[in-house]
Amino acid sequence: MEYLDIVDENGVPTGKIAERTAAHKQGLRHRTSHVWILRERAGKVEVLLQKRSQNKDSFPGCYDISSAGHIPAGVDFIPSALRELKEELGCSVSENELIYCGQRRFSYDGIFHGKEFHDRQVSNVYALWLDRRPEDFALQKEELEEVRWFEFESCLRLVEKNEIPHCIYLEELQMLLPEVRKRERLCILVTPPVTEEEKQQLLQAAPGQKFFFTEKPELTEEQLRRADIILGNLQSPLQLKKCENLKWIQLNNAGTEGYCEPGLLPEGAQLANATGAYGMAISEHMIGCLFALRKKLLLYWDNQKVHCWHSEGHVKVIERSNVLVIGCGDIGMTFGRKMNALGCRVSGIRRRVSKKSDCPEWMEGMYGMDSLEELLPKADIVAMSLPGNASTYHVLSRERIALLSDNAVVLNVGRGTAIDTDALADALYTGKIAGAALDVTDPEPLPADHRLWNAPNLLITPHVSGGFSLPETLEKIVGLFADNLERYFAGQPIENLVNLQTGYRE
Q: Which residues contact 462 (CB under 8 A, 6 or more apart)?
């Protein structure tokens, strides 16, 4: 019979012992040692899984940890781990070869072979680097049927999606990530036009990795095929089809149009964006356009070109204006905060309003899209910073433009498809609204013969409010890249992950 120490939640023996079967029947907390065997092949890390015997009292025939075992009463974690490695796999290793990855506690309740099974474990988790062929392990046949190497990233996906029979906890597998990342030699492709100083910042964030600094037009198929990580946009999202090794792409945009199409990213690859990098630059562009319109600076610029000293009459006040921000991500909220500082009353519209904390103190209110028709007639300034997708198409439709007052100014820095272009042109030509500033259009680029070019009180810029027009924006993007590289190689979740179903940051 096998007796186990009954332990507290920290794995410290309480002085009581129980027979193993009784511990599982009664749900008594006990200790186990878990050893994950790893090896490095061609810059990739593989993990060894054992397949449990069909005769096991729990999870028969399932893939499991490389080597795991209950700790007999009176024995500590490491001696037990070394014993299990020898008995199960025929591996003799030293204590110093075991790399401690953490401790975890878990519970499981189920039925196996018609008997109740209540498992309460405190487990120490170890990594062991050992490169052997499966046939070179001396297997304990009554305990396991076989061992098999899996590429580590593939194993994560298989466990997460339950695509193999297993009794592995994803959280425990993820505990190995810091150790795995230390050994990986990845190919990192950087596409923005970074400076030498910014290159060094990225190199320092991921020492020992292979970097390619190649701007979008110069990308080669070989670089795309080899890329494990891509920092920056591609010339076309369709190029993702060539990225067979891709683990993660971080766009230099906040918008993700084209990158979320089903089947475009390799299975398991993650998408992140650059939310947080553009608020400063784009909000200042919006404010500049707003002042130009309200203070008739465009008319005075026309007069200057023809040397005409002429007053254009009354201008409009910005202080005390009602500002409606449609799209309350980093850009919209930064603009709203600055408009509040100018003495404006600011309200926001966002896709989902889940809690009171969504509305900061400086904002009059935060609303969902269902409140748009109610708020538009009250708005003096409508600021739009929406991404381009099916849910944002023609948010400002002809019917909603008709709700605007003749004092309203429309600012759009998100995507041109969020506005009905023909309806906006009609409103400008007829004086239905006071003006508009568009950094994005539909279509884009705007054709030379399009009627918008000559519309009164309209300021058009060629999608330059963001991008790299402001050097500080690229600095912020590179900072985000570097932070996420450090997080990735430390086995931590990367920031700004995008939900592929919605196209928005999670």
A: 439, 445
Cβ pair 77, 33 in contact under 8 A: yes
Separation CA 379–CA 322 (nearest Å): 5
236 CB-contact burial (10 Å; exposed 0-12 / middle 13-18 / buried 19+): exposed
pTM, two decimals, is 0.79
CA count, 13 A, side-chain hemisphere, 160: 11
Report the chain's C-alpha Rg in angstroms. 30
386 and 395 Cβ atoms separated by less than 8 Å: yes
Q: What is the pLDDT of residues 293-351, one digit of tens each?
A: 999 999 999 999 999 999 999 999 999 999 999 999 999 999 999 999 999 999 999 98
Q: In the numeric block, which tokens belong to residue 504?
A: 């928005």
Q: CA-CA distance, 207 to 373, in Å (whole number)?
A: 53
Query: Could you check whether the bond before residue 165 is cis, i.e. omega within 30 degrees of 0?
Result: no
CB 383 within 8 A of CB 333: no
pLDDT band at 20 (very low <50, low <70, confident <90, very high): confident
Q: How far is CA 379 from CA 384, 447, 478, in A?
A: 12, 30, 37
pLDDT tier for residue 55 given thresholds of 50, 70 and 90: confident
Burial of 178 (0-12, 13-18, 19+ CB in 10 A): middle
Residue 51's nearest CA partner among 21, 88, 92, 4 is 88
Backbone angles phi, psi at 242, to 5 degrees: -90, -10
Instruction: Determine the 3-state secondary structure of 355 from DSSP.
Output: coil
Q: Does the pLDDT of residue 112 top 80, yes or no?
A: no
Q: Which residue intervals of 279-397 are DSSP H helices?
A: 279-294, 297-305, 330-341, 372-375
Report how far residue 117's alpha carbon sits from residue 113's, in angstroms, rounded to the nearest whole number.
Answer: 10
Q: Which helix (H) or strand (E) holds 436?
A: strand 435-438
Cβ pair 215, 232 in contact under 8 A: no
Please list the alpha-helical segments (H only) found in 67-160: 77-84, 152-160
Cα 459 to Cα 467: distance, rounded to the nearest angstrom = 19
